Amino acid sequence: MSSWRVRRNRFVVTVHRTLFLGSRGRLAGRVAGMPVVMITTTGHATGKRRRTMLTVPVRDGARLVLVASNGGNPRHPDWFLNLRGDPRVEVTSEGRSRPMVAAIAGAEEKARLWPCVVVAYAGYAEYQRRSPRDIPLVLLAPAPRE
After folding, report:
1. Has residue 61 got a pLDDT over 90?
2. pLDDT at 32
């Protein structure tokens, strides 16, 4: 990708993130027809809080389904590694934040959900074709009340 496209993409992402953060997801809350959420995880190596914006192609009841595609790269995304280390996450969308707990979909759940994910965004099928790894689905469920 040319350097001007990289700079343009970074600029677009920065503007999107700024709008989303400033409005807690009321603005810039959709991309490619999918809802956008910001997840706050705990860094698996650093222990620091990390924020990542992701799309939610599918909801499964009260659970949000995330795709750890990393654009089809052979390496898992950092946010996924963070959730494997600590499944507790804060999710910001639609003007509010709430605690949730992550779980990696098992083979049967993924087989049931993957076709719905691909219908929502066909690019995920291409990412899977490109990637040597099995792209995981992450299910975020409301955290139990303490």
Report:
1. yes
2. 72
- CATH code of the domain covering residue 26: 2.30.110.10
In the beta sheet, which residues pair with residue 132?
A: none
- Asked whether the beta carbons of 44 and 82 are under 8 A apart, the reply is yes
Domain coverage including residue 75: 3-142
Question: What is the rounded distance in angstroms from the CA atom of residue 69 to the CA atom of residue 79?
Answer: 11
Residue 128 in tokens: 């899977």
What single-letter DSSP state applies at residue 124? H
Q: State residue 8 phi and psi, 5-degree precision.
A: -60, -45
| Rg over CA atoms, the chain | 15
Task: Read off the pTM.
Answer: 0.85
Structural domain count, the chain: 1
